[in-house]
Amino acid sequence: QLQLVESGGGLVQPGGSLRLSCAASGSTLDYYGIGWFRQAQGKEREGVSCISRSGNITYYADSVKGRFTLSRDNAKNAVYLQMNSLKPEDTAVYYCAAQLKCSQWATAFRYWGQGTQVTVSS
Fold first, then answer.
1. Of 55, 76, 107, 120, which is most buried by a Cβ count within 10 Å?
2. pLDDT of residue 47
3. How confident is the model at residue 95 (pLDDT cuts 50, 70, 90)?
4. What pLDDT is attached to residue 104?
């Protein structure tokens, strides 16, 4: 059974950077597309980005294009979301999720991590 654990969240000032990690256990990530989603308080979960099994980025949300970069290291069984130029509106719980094929829709993903809080505030 694939298990995912996110890390790297925290409090950062506007304009700052964070790198989120999604580590896998129980199975190899080679078989899965990995998506990142976020959910701000009182809002629906939204897709941020997804990286396919082959390493192709299938999409970035318009709100993060040019600021966030998704990558994967199959040797380390991990996926990374580099977040630069952070804005207060990026504040949310960030989740990674795994499924055979990338999608922008949370309902398409079977495996989820527990989430990591990102707070952007001065």
1. 120
2. 97
3. very high
4. 94
